[in-house]
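Input (Toluene-4-sulfonate monooxygenase system iron-sulfur subunit TsaM1):
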Amino acid sequence: MSFVRNAWYVAGWSSEFGDDLHALEIIGQSLVLFRDSAGAIKALEDRCPHRLLPLSKGKRIGDTIQCGYHGMTFDGRGTCVRVPGQDNTPQSANVDAFEVEERHGIVWVWMGAPDRADRSLIFDLPEFSDSNWHTHHGGHLHIKSHYLNVAENLVDPAHVSFVHPTTLGNSASEDVPVHVSTSGDVIRAWRWIRNGPPIGFFQKFGGFKGNVDRWHYYDLHLPSTAVIDFGSIDTDLNCPEEERDRGVRIFAIHFVTPVSEDYTIDHWMHLRNTAQGDQAASEQMDAMFNMAFAEDKEILEAVHEAEKRPQRRRPIRIAIDKGPNVYRKRIRDLVAAETTEDLGDPVRPVFIEK
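Output:
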């Protein structure tokens, strides 16, 4: 398994979770989620410990779930509170409960060791709380591909010219150098395309009459959250890189949730500094994003299918792969750290290194 377990993953938007039982899967773990009477979302292992029927096949009774097979009932902490036909409950008759956090209309679930659930690690942006920015929850892209392929595609500006030539890119950027920074916790790839025609997206939403300077900044936060900061500004304004807010600027945010080794859900949304409160603009942007992300989906699913077939030669890596290469190494290191135990420095070791 290549999943990082000690991490927060997005289960969906807050608006999608209500009183009903909501079944989903994250990193191979089946979960059932519901809102209790106080409005808090509970997440439990979706498997009764008796005959293993998913609890999502049962029903809500107050703030508990009753198994649909023999009626064993569990509270929001996963504790069995009733076994029909007997007064006692076996000590092991419980299911795992998972930590949940809601922020900015996003539902996060901690999939690792409960005692390591640090809420300060949940992804955030200052613009979420800035009235000058409009937040819009988008959709969910279901991709039959390994999540590593999906995530590394989101730190790869070079593919935009070829995969999205009419929506997010054009031929003007094909040979523009990509800068990569891997020195910090966030892997960043970026480039500016100066004095070129606006791409289709900004032709529609920017109202530009002439050439523009446009940018793409791809930030990848481990294990699998990506922020694409892109925008455009009139070339005549000669905008410095640190003053991008002067232009039409958008953050496309991708919360990449691994479901299994062969299936990933990309929960995507955007923030923008233009057309605040304009629902029609949100719907138009959604339509264009859907078109662009469908192009990614086609590519990624084809790559995943090809990876599963026997290979006669090793895949090659080229200059534009620096960001993805570093990303994969960091994921390997995190997985290795979770699956091994460091006993510390040896006491009276038999083998002594000199």
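Residues 126-334 form a domain with the Naphthalene 1,2-dioxygenase Alpha Subunit; Chain A, domain 1 fold (CATH 3.90.380.10).
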